[in-house]
Structure formats: structure tokens, C-alpha cells
Amino acid sequence: MALDDLKSAVPDYAKDLKLNLGSVIGNSDLPQQQLWGTVLACAIASRSPKVLRELEPEAKANLSAEAYTAAKSAAAIMGMNNVFYRTRHLLSDPEYGNLRAGLRMNVIGNPGVDKVDFELWSLAVSAINGCGMCLDSHEQVLRKAGVERETIQEAVKIAAVLQAVGATLDAEAALAE
């Protein structure tokens, strides 16, 4: 199992990450599509080749073709949106908020899967990318759709752990060169 391989690659000094990795993926209460879509989107957003290589095959095996594509789409579109909207928020000139974005985001309106799943994946990627505006927006859509805070937190925990595991493994690889 790829998850076990990834856990075994985590160094001893990061034992908490190893334990959390097993917990957030191995013991998740999320339905399979939400879980593995979140894992795939976050593995991509983590920018860690090791994390993506290890988790992508299992995600692909647990997702329909449509959900697999939609999770990758969530990572892609939020990679763009998080930079754009985070920058708009951080600039001190509020007039940027009045300008038309002019960026295509069609996949958000028609992701090919249940809107709640896509929103959850988008929220998790936004957590990794640190965009408060996008986090607020996706959290509000999810809450209006009846998604419990615990489910939202579950996706954020997956994002946090995968990001930390990726950074740790990439740092170890760089130090070994």
C-alpha cells in the first residue's frame, strides 16, 4: 500500500506526521470520493513529487474517472485562484477588488462531480495555498449546503498533514544530495 510506503519514508524526528498521516487518511470518516479527492488535490497542491507519486495510484483506484479529473481540476484552478485572490486581498489598494477578474473558472460551475465534493477539495487546496478569501468563500458554500464543520476540518487536516509530510520528505531529499 502506498500510504504505508509514504509513512515509512517519514523520518523518526517527524513521528507525529507519520501518525497523523495514518490517522487522517487511514481512519477518515469522509466518504471514499471526498477522502480520495481531497488526498489527490492536496497531494498535487503540496508540490511534493514523493507525496504525489505515492498517493496518486491509490487515489486513482478509489475515484471514478470523473472524480479523479475533478480533483486534479480543483488543484489546478485553485492554484490560480489562490494566488489571484490572495494578492487582491493583500494589496492595500481596495480598488483592485472592483476590477473584473477576467480569468476563466468554468470548472467551478461544472466540475463533473457533486458540487459539495469539488468545494471541499477546493477548500483543502486553498488551505495549503493560504488564501483566506478562498477559504471563506468555499467554507460558506459548504456550510450553506449543510456540510458539518467536522467534515470541513477533516479536509483541512488532510491538507495540513500532506503539506507537512511533503515539506519534510523534500527537505530530507535535498539534504541527502
Structure description:
By secondary structure, the protein is an all-alpha fold. The protein has a single domain (2-176), classed as AhpD-like (Up-down Bundle). It is built from nine helices and no strands. The protein has helices spanning 2-9, 15-26, 32-45, 49-62, 65-90, 106-109, 115-129, 132-144, 149-176. Helix 3 (32-45) packs antiparallel against helix 4 (49-62), helix 3 crosses helix 5 and helix 3 runs parallel beside helix 9 (149-176). The longest helix has 28 residues, at 149-176. The active site is at residues 131, 134. Belongs to the AhpD family. Antioxidant protein with alkyl hydroperoxidase activity. Required for the reduction of the AhpC active site cysteine residues and for the regeneration of the AhpC enzyme activity. It catalyses: N(6)-[(R)-dihydrolipoyl]-L-lysyl-[lipoyl-carrier protein] + a hydroperoxide = N(6)-[(R)-lipoyl]-L-lysyl-[lipoyl-carrier protein] + an alcohol + H2O.
What are the salient characteristics of this protein?
about 0% strand, 9 helices, about 180 residues, single chain, AhpD-like
Uncertain residue segments: none
Supply the number of structural domains.
1
CATH architecture: Up-down Bundle
Q: Radius of gyration, Cα only, in angstroms? A: 16 Å
- The counted number of beta strands is 0
Shape: globular
Average per-residue pLDDT, rounded, comes to: 96
CATH superfamily: AhpD-like
Approximate strand percentage = under 5%
